[in-house]
């Protein structure tokens, strides 16, 4: 059972970004499945690292497009990315140092952040970038 299902409501009508969002959702679902299956800390840590690293890669893609076309809400969007990176880095650090566990609260935070970020923040650049020929 997936934690978060990809559907067209999550699409921003930009192929590369949609593919990256789908991959993020897939990695998040893998982390959830591994947690539910009681996988080892090592396995969970690898998936958590993959999720965080891929999110950073994805953010760079978005930020490059927003910079290239001078998206007017870039600073706001960049701040959300920075906030997530800081929270994620702290989570990974605490997890690696055994002071945190992958719990349903952590999974729910990640799910809600991904879902809300796509449906709210990312939708704000959709029309702007589409109008600049980015699909």
Q: CATH architecture, please? A: Up-down Bundle
Q: Which strand-content bin applies to the residues?
A: under 5%
Write down the domain tally.
Answer: 1
Shape type = globular
The helix content is: over 70%
* Total count of helical runs of at least 4 residues: 4
- The CATH superfamily is identified as Hemerythrin-like
Please give the CATH class: Mainly Alpha
Structural class computed from helices and strand pairing: mainly alpha
Return the CATH topology: Four Helix Bundle (Hemerythrin (Met), subunit A)
* Terminal residue distance: 31 Å
Number of strands: 0
Low-confidence stretches: none
Q: Evaluate the radius of gyration.
A: 15 Å
Largest beta-sheet characterization: none
**How do the helices and strands follow one another from N- to C-terminus?**
HHHH
Mean of residue pLDDT? 94
Short description:
This protein is an all-alpha fold.
Architecture overview:
This protein is mainly α and 135 residues long. The protein has a single domain (13-131), classed as Hemerythrin-like (Four Helix Bundle (Hemerythrin (Met), subunit A), Up-down Bundle), CATH 1.20.120. The protein has four helices and no strands. The protein has helices at 15-36, 41-68, 74-96, 104-131. The chain is globular and about 45 Å long.
């Amino acid at each position: 059972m997936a934690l978060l299902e990809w559907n067209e409501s999550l699409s921003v009508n930009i192929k590369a970004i949609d593919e990256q969002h789908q991959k993020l959702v897939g990695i998040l679902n893998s982390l959830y499945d591994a947690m539910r299956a009681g996988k080892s800390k090592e396995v969970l840590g690898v998936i958590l690292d993959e999720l965080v690293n891929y999110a950073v890669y994805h953010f760079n893609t978005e930020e490059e497009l927003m910079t290239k076309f001078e998206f007017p809400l870039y600073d706001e969007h960049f701040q959300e990315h920075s906030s997530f990176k800081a929270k994620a880095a702290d989570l990974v650090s605490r997890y690696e140092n055994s002071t945190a566990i992958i719990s349903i609260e952590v999974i729910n935070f990640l799910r809600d952040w991904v879902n809300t970020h796509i449906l709210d923040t990312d939708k704000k650049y959709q029309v702007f970038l589409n109008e600049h020929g980015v699909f």
